[in-house]
Amino acid sequence: MYEMLFSVSLYLIDSILSGVYTWGFLEGKYRKKAVLTAWGAVCFIVQTAVFELLCGNASLDKLEGIILNIGILLLMQSVFYKKDIPKQFFAVFSFLAGREIVRNIVMVLSILFGDFSQPVLDYFLAGGVINTLEKSQFFGTVYATVFTISCLSLYTLLLSVYLHLINKMFVKKNYFLQTQETIFLILPCAAVLCISIILKLIMISVENGMTIFVYDTIPATKFWIPVICFLLLSTIIANVVLFQKLVQYSEETGKCAMLENQARHMQKEIAEIQDIYTDMRGLRHDMRSHLAGIAALVRNSAGLENKELESYIGKMEETVSRLDFSCQTGNPITDIIIHQKGQEAKKKQIQFWVDFACPPKLSIDVYDIAVILNNALENAIEACSRAEGERQIKLRSYVKGSLFFIEVENDFQRDIMMDKETGLPISSKEDGTQHGIGMSNIQRCAKKYRGDIDIVVSDTDGRKKFSLMVMMNGKMERHGISHPK
After folding, report:
1. Would you list the DSSP string of 160-193?
2. Pair 165, 70: CB distance under 8 Å
3. DSSP per-residue letters across 379-423
4. CA–CA separation, 352 vs 106, rounded Å?
5. CA atoms within 13 A on the CB side of 208
6. C-alpha span between 175 and 231 (Å, rounded)
7. How do residues 153-194 score in pLDDT, each as one tens digit?
8. In whole angstroms, what is the distance from residue 233 CA to residue 239 CA?
């Protein structure tokens, strides 16, 4: 009775935990509540029918039972979740490996529970507390109930903690696993399953028609088997952590390479534009001098003012003045970037307000400032172009002591999702490989100068604002503090 109830309770716990665990890795075809409810019910019914009614509980401990479980879970994943074969296999193998090892731990601890409860039973018998058949049956019922509830509670706790740690450590759930990476993750789980099978084979033996537990012949196994089991669970968790670190390192290396390429490309382009910028300044000066000379010559020759001629020359001067950059930041590189982004915003009918100046007293590489401005303004223009109604971008900078601050504020419309790992906004671009690269480059430049970024999202009267503040720490060349403008 209690053995049957214990097995059915295990199936129920496994069904619930496997559903919640699998949802953390795979994308469901239906709503979460519907999937979890259907998964739990189907998994419980199938396991009870197959292992308890058809095969018998003993088959669950054999290799055939584990293989059958793998097949059942994979089949259910194909029904309730979208196709992602690498993660499907990892979810199944990691769950079954944890389940088998936790069962071994609970089995040993249940034996220890029996060893500790035996003196209590002897005490009651010796004291005459249990002196009738009714009392003996009552005590047996209480003992069996407490034993069953304790084992099930411990099993649920240990398996839940293990699955929670795997889910928590596996941060890059959107990462598409390659074949080699899938094998890297599954091999430890497969090894743990094999060790679990071996442990079950050596735990119980039959000699002269009597069942003998290995704990009785080798008492030290009551200590070493739980220790080994905990180490095996830790190995799976550590393997997941190692894999995540490798993925993060690979992504960071790729981002560094992209940032370096972006900086080199920007340096090349800016160097070319800077030469044009220098030539334009000389050309503006010469053209204004020529226009002034022509106007004076015409006036002296005609001997009187000619309104039509003056209007024509005025329009020529206005045309020449367009060659000037509206924003003078103190550095031609940032002048070019802000002018270019301002023209782009103007084409998209976005108001562009600028109060920016390069910090002359701080040893901050202007190319790093250029990377920040280029990425921040590009993101701002992209977000503003999707918004409706009045749209505005504000750019300002100021210096406080040795700290240089850049603020970019823009309107936006779509909801912003933050990456739990990096704390940065998740890009809405379809190309997943470019996911958040711009903001990551901004943060990387800031940290290069012992700084960081701060993001504030506000919603006032239905108008959403995205504010990015970048702080960089530059060594002062001479004393003095510039106050915010």
Report:
1. HHHHHHHHHH---TTSPPPHHHHHHHHHHHHHHH
2. no
3. HHHHHHHT--SS-EEEEEEEEETTEEEEEEEEEE-S--PBPTTT-
4. 66
5. 0
6. 27
7. 999 999 999 999 999 999 888 888 889 999 999 999 999 999
8. 10
Q: Which two tokens stand for residue 166?
A: 């795997």
Q: 141: which strand partners?
A: none
Contact 7, 52 (CB under 8 A): yes
Kindly report, residue by residue over 71-117, the tens digit of the pLDDT. Answer: 999 999 999 999 999 999 999 999 999 999 999 899 888 887 776 66
Task: Band the pLDDT of 435: cuts 50, 70, 90.
Answer: very low
Polymer length in residues for the chain: 485
Vertex 148 angle, CA 142 and 153, to 5°: 125
Using only C-alpha atoms, the chain has a radius of gyration, in whole angstroms, of 36
> Which residues are CB-contacts of 129 (< 8 A; sequence separation ≥ 6)?
135
C-alpha angle 68/199/117, rounded to 5°? 110
Confidence of residue 222 (pLDDT cuts 50, 70, 90): confident
User: Residue 403 corresponds to which tokens in the numbers above?
Assistant: 């700290």
Please choose, from the candidates 57, 58, 38, the residue with its C-alpha nearest in 3D space to the C-alpha of residue 48: 57
Rounded CA separation 418/409 (Å): 18
Q: Which residue has 């507390």 as its token pair?
A: 129
Instruction: Give the burial class of 4: count Cβ atoms within 10 A of its Cβ; 0-12 exposed, 13-18 middle, 19 or more buried.
Output: exposed
**Token digits of residue 91:** 């979810």
- State how beta strands 452-460 and 463-473 pair: antiparallel
Nearest to 203 by CA among 226, 187, 230: 226
424 and 442 Cβ atoms separated by less than 8 Å: no
Is residue 473 within 8 Å of residue 403, measured between CB atoms? Answer: yes
Cα separation, 203 vs 218, in Å, equals 10
Tell me the pTM.
0.65
CB 376 within 8 A of CB 425: no
Measured distance CA(151)–CA(158) in Å, rounded: 11
Whose structure tokens read 């119980």? Answer: 204
Alpha carbon distance 384, 379 (integer Å): 9
Q: Evaluate whether 466 touches 412 at the Cβ level (below 8 Å).
A: yes
